[in-house]
Amino acid sequence: MKVVKKQCQGQAYLVRYADDFVCCFQYKQEAERFYRELKQRIGQFNWTLAEEKARIIPFGRFAWENARQNENRKSKTFDFLGFTHYCGRSKSEHFRVKRKSSRKKVCAKLKAHAQWLKAHRTKEMDFIMDRIKRSLIGYYNYYCVTDNLPTVNAFRLQVMRLLYKWLNRRSQKRSFTWERFNLLVQRYTVPRPRVKVNIYDLRTDLSYIL
């Protein structure tokens, strides 16, 4: 990327984590040139780019403002590291990039919860609730970042609904009303999400930004 930046007239950045990365260019033509050269470079090793992940989109303040001027057009989004990145406004009405849990990741996680609860619904309550609590805490630790709290709250609600559903299928007789279920959740102190990481407190010289 350092070689590419020297050839660019506008700003260019690479944001990476492990083998995932996002390239940002100020000018469209430089993004297109990089994309062509990247495909050629990868082709030399008999590799191919995943077309559903490798794409060029307009993104940022100017792209967002252009989309707002066109009522029939929405600003583009992209997924990276389990988050959907999208354009929005801060509380002070200024532009800012926001993040929310990727819909694909949320659906996969909920499906995994449903399958686990179905398979283990007859186990002891302490075992079930401990697993649910640990799973939620792990999810919060990763996804509770700036602007994503509403999505994480919605995820917790869906997990609670799945838990209610499968606890009521432990036997032929219904085990819980919503009132009794809420008392159970309080008894086991199932945690609620709160912001763990403020994106805008991070330093700009982090090692994954080149």
TrEMBL record:
SUPFAM superfamilies per UniProt: DNA/RNA polymerases
In terms of PROSITE patterns, this protein maps to: RT_POL
Reverse transcriptase domain ranges (all copies): 1-85
One Pfam family name is RVT_1
Is Transferase one of the keywords UniProt gives this record?
Answer: yes
Q: Which GO terms describe its molecular function?
A: RNA-directed DNA polymerase activity
| Sorted UniProt keywords | Nucleotidyltransferase, RNA-directed DNA polymerase, Transferase
Q: Tell me the superkingdom of the source.
A: Bacteria
Keyword Nucleotidyltransferase in the entry? The reply is yes
Specify the protein name: Reverse transcriptase (RNA-dependent DNA polymerase)
